[in-house]
Every structure is written in C-alpha cells, then in structure tokens.
Amino acid sequence: AASKIDIQFFEIMQLCDRIYSQLYILLSLPQLPSEVSAVAYEHHEDNLGTGYPRRLTKHAIHPFTQIVRVANLFAEFALKSPSHPGMGAAGALNHIELHYKEGLNSDSYGALRAIFENAASKAA
Asked: Do 11 and 54 share a domain, yes or no?
C-alpha cells in the first residue's frame, strides 16, 4: 500500500503537470503581451533567488510580477480556500511580514501594507 506521503507527492505532481500544461498553452498564444507571460511564468519567483521555476533574483523579475507576487501571497493567506482556513487581512500581513518579507519587492509590499493601515486608521 502507498504511504500518505507517496499519495500526497503523486497529487502534487499531477497538479504541477496540469499547471505547466496550462502555462504552456498560455505562453503559446501569439498575441500575448510580454508582461502577461512574465507574470504567469514568474509569479512564484522571489527576490532572494529561492523561488521557482528559474530561481530569478530581484533584478531579473518583471516589475509587474513583483506586484502580483505580493497580491498572490496576501490572497493565499487572507482568504479562505479548500486548503486554508484564511487569516484575514491583518493575519495575512503579519504572516507575510514574519515569513516572506525579505523575498518581496519592498515598494509593492509597503503599498499593500499602507492600504490596510490607512483603512484601519479611518475605521478607528
């Protein structure tokens, strides 16, 4: 019988296969703006060069991708999903601050944080 780890690994590999198949289709579109393809391909990269698929460093990552990366992480942690209970805005910002900030574009992250800090100060 397969172990739980083997089953989870297999499920992850199936998901990666579907994602890369969809990415290949997207990138093969003839009229796709270069910015869109950069964001689609690079949104898991980080400024430290530890992201994937190419381990790009901050100067090699498209500026639009830098913005989307911050928004993607925020949505992943703030919103409820089938795989995550959701932390809300404040929880997501704190989690990102503790675990991901060094790998993010500081201007993009600062802008996101300012949006919620301004909203909180207006609500008070």
From this structure: no
